[in-house]
Design goal:
7-stranded mixed sheet; 9 strands; binds guanosine-5'-triphosphate; globular; binds magnesium ion; alpha/beta; Spore Coat Polysaccharide Biosynthesis Protein SpsA, Chain A; about 190 residues; two-stranded antiparallel sheet; single chain
Amino acid sequence: MIGAVLAGGRGKRFGGDKLLFEISGKPLILYTIERLEKADSIDEVVVVASPENADKLKPLGYRVVVDELLVGPIGGVYTALSLGDAFVVAGDMPLLVPEFIDFIVERFKTAKKPACVPRWGNGYLEPLHAAYSSEFREFLEENIKAGQYAINQAIRESDACYIEIESLPEKWRESFFNVNTRKDLGRIGKYRGP
Ligand SMILES: Nc1nc2c(ncn2[C@@H]2O[C@H](COP(=O)(O)OP(=O)(O)OP(=O)(O)O)[C@@H](O)[C@H]2O)c(=O)[nH]1
Ligand SMILES: [Mg+2]
């Protein structure tokens, strides 16, 4: 399974170049990529970047595909699925839990649904920590063409399978942590394992 890392955002809340911001000398996106690579179910990591970010991210040495749509995460998922089925994460998720990713991919493979998405008890979805089939791409295309850019709505209108977060080990929830502001950086060191 491809591991797709969305990197087309502008980091407005962070104040620019969020994904290349270095923490202990390493860019934020590399923390995310290295955790994703640790998942046994992931064969190859691909970075889905905006045209603007692509040149800056290529030196990291991972395959980069360009998202020409730039309509938000839905366009990133759409672009990722041109390569086949994919587990999609945001580039700003440095605390990904590899065994949780393997768990979702396993469910995805047995469920044979267009997508497998973690869901909280209140119905909130985690679409940027989810597995998608390449067949889901056409469905996303219809949504995008109709100017409907909310990926959560697209998922809800599909026959997706859901993974109930509250039934899983509590420590896996750290996997959803994402860096949006500079203040969030303080949480990384605190949560990083040995
Ligand atoms: N490929 C692609 N990725 C996107 C797009 N919009 C956001 N992303 C990525 O999706 C992830 C989650 O987005 P946010 O947390 O909102 O990050 P952001 O857009 O950089 O930050 P803000 O500007 O503060 O909202 C980040 O990894 C972004 O790089 C897009 O249009 N295309
Ligand atoms: Mg974020």
